[in-house]
UniProtKB/TrEMBL annotation:
It comes from Brassicogethes aeneus (Rape pollen beetle). This is Electron transfer flavoprotein subunit alpha. Its main location: mitochondrion. SMART domains: ETF. One of its GO terms (molecular function) is electron transfer activity. Belongs to the ETF alpha-subunit/FixB family.
Length: 334
């Protein structure tokens, strides 16, 4: 049995249609100019729970393809496109003046983005400029002003009512079913983006790690390894298993800190939050900071040689075994 409550899907967001009509939400799209990040689909789904009109801001450089994708989402009334060289790298510093200007013009009741690295950098700055409190890590929407959020690394669930005139809300992608992004034909309008270039922060460049495996936060199956793997070379056991299952590979912080794998694989409080259909934890003890990143997975399987390992308390299926024997056997049988 799971120790923790599951996601916001269980928090019924039932409030009157009349109240919903008064809402207007600005969703901040996360994208790479060409395509939307999956988190945007989750943010749009959360905005739909709030009800009322939904506008989506797509700010970037030559971001036509991303804005066209947004316009196809049913329930989105308007796509606001802003293009400027200043948005290279999508820095919070350059985007904030744009969002504040959009808010001043349109007086939204809610500004919503995904609780990703992008949203976590952006929304507190936007909220500060609007002199309101940001509402972070939202996992449920009870009404237009009442949100359910995860606090203390997932150890407690808080229900809070925000009194601010505009609610600046970061939603966890794992808690809102992705919008299908079909059936809509939203109008597109452009917004001037002068004055967004910043002297203090300049985007220099980025190096993105490439992998043929699915992206960790959107994968349906994740195979994660911990200190029990004992070396980076031994992670090959997990890569082989992951390839058979079309899974993404994740890791505990101990495995990252030991240099077995790169830190973009880290799952947990200070890593990525995942909620796949199937999470297989191999040689991971189940520290609370790791659980904070994966406990909402639909089915959790743990392979650990220590029957007392805390991971077994959240696992749906547990295998007390030596991973060096169990994992190749499992891969062989698939
Ligand atoms: C502020 C803070 C933030 C943190 N953030 C994160 C985070 O985001 N993510 C995260 O993961 N951790 C995080 N941590 C660290 C966390 O507390 C744990 O230290 C870490 O998760 C332990 O990783 P582990 O389970 O791989 O290692 P260990 O706790 O050392 O567990 C290794 C496990 O492998 C098992 N094992 C060993 N050999 C075998 C074998 N041959 N076969 C089968 N099983 C075997 C052992 O029985 C053991 O249970 C954070 C800590 C702090 C203080």
């Amino acid at each position: 049995m799971k120790m923790f409550s599951k996601t916001s899907r269980q928090f019924g967001a039932q409030f009157s249609n009349q109240a919903k009509r008064l809402q207007s939400t600005l969703v901040i799209a996360e994208h790479d100019n060409k395509a939307l990040s999956p988190i945007t689909q989750h943010a749009i789904a959360a905005a739909k729970k709030l009800g009322g009109e939904i506008s989506v801001l797509v700010a970037g450089t030559k971001c036509g393809p991303a804005s066209e994708a947004v316009a196809k989402a049913s329930g989105v009334t308007k796509v606001i496109v802003a293009e400027n060289e200043a948005f290279k790298g999508f820095t919070a510093e350059s985007l904030t003046p744009l969002i504040v200007a959009a808010q001043k013009k349109n007086n939204y009741t809610h500004i919503v983005a995904g609780a990703s690295a992008f949203g976590k950098a952006l929304l507190p700055r936007v909220a500060a400029k609007l002199d309101v409190s940001p509402v972070s890590d939202v996992i449920g929407i009870k009404s237009a002003d009442t949100f359910v959020r995860s606090i203390y690394a997932g150890n407690a669930i808080q229900t809070l009512t925000a009194k601010d005139p505009v609610k600046v809300v970061a939603v966890r992608g794992t808690s809102f079913e992705a919008d299908s992004m079909t059936g809509g034909s939203a109008a597109t309008e452009t917004m001037p983006a002068d004055g967004c270039a910043q002297d203090m922060t300049v985007f220099v460049g980025q190096e993105l790690s490439k992998s043929d495996r699915p992206e960790l936060t959107s994968a349906k199956v994740v195979v994660s390894g911990g200190r029990g793997l004992k070396s980076g070379d031994n992670f090959k056991l997990l890569y082989d298993l992951a390839d058979k299952m079309k899974a993404a590979v994740g890791a505990s912080r101990a495995a990252v800190d030991a240099g077995y794998v790169a830190n973009d694989l880290q799952v947990g409080q200070t890593g990525k939050i995942v909620a796949p259909d199937l999470y297989i934890a191999v040689g991971i003890s189940g520290a609370i900071q790791h659980l904070a990143g994966m406990k909402d997975s639909k089915t959790i399987v743990a392979i650990n040689k220590d029957p007392e390992a805390p991971i077994f308390q959240v696992a749906d299926y547990g295998l007390v075994a030596d991973l060096f024997k169990a994992v190749p056997e499992l891969t062989g049988k698939l």
